[in-house]
Amino acid sequence: MSLISFINKKTYEVVDELEDFIYCDYDLRYIIAELNKKGYKTLFSCSGHLDVGLFDYTHKEPIEDLEDFLEQAKEDSSLHIIKKDDKYFYHKDEKTYTCTYITFDKVYDFNVLPKDFIVEVVDNKTSIYKKVFFYNNSKNTDRKSDKQISSELSQNYEDLKEWVNKLI
Question: Which of 62, 71, 121, 166 is buried deepest, with most CB atoms within 10 A?
Fold first, then answer.
């Protein structure tokens, strides 16, 4: 099921997908367009989003692991216990980073990557990504400013543009 539909402004025809279009985040639009023009077909991508403080879904863990979790939580302020019962405890993890990534339709052997990007091949598809952390330390107590995080994301886009321009 599609999460969004499109209605033609002239005919009012409803369609769930625009088959002739590639979806991408605004900040990556020219990068994704250029990659596809050069023959590097993309499947999906994300520019990374400044959503510090949002939580990942609730995790359910065996109650015997609670003590280990509580010890970890002493060292990492992003871990939060929600509740416990006889068999399980439930926790949410604050998001501590975002990613700029591009996933391609097949395996591409890139000799060079954008600065500090990582490449992975999963299910015969190449992905490149770079994490931008919301905190300056591993205990997640010293939060970066929104301006600093936005600046790092912008640098990712610049690094990707430079990389794409050099691709043949």
Answer: 121
CB atoms within 10 A of CB 140: 19
Dihedral sign, CA of 28, 31, 34, 40?
negative
pLDDT for the residue numbered 99: 95
Across the chain, the runs of DSSP E, i.e. the strands, are 6-7, 14-15, 42-46, 59-62, 79-84, 88-93, 97-104, 118-122, 125-133
pLDDT (tens digit, 9 = 90+) per residue, 19-64?
Answer: 777 888 999 999 999 999 999 999 999 999 887 667 777 889 999 9
Using CA atoms, how far residue 83 sits from 23, 62, 78, 135, in Å, is 39, 12, 16, 26
Which residue in 47, 153, 155, 151 sits closest to 102, CA to CA? 47
How many other C-beta atoms are found inside a 10 Å radius of the C-beta of residue 114?
Answer: 22
**113-117, Cβ contacts within 8 angstroms, sequence gap of 24 or more:** 113/163, 114/156, 114/159, 114/160, 114/162, 114/163, 115/159, 116/159, 117/159, 117/160, 117/163
Structure tokens at 6: 């499109």
pLDDT of residue 3: 64
The predicted model scores a pTM of 0.79
- Token pair of 31, please? 């990068």
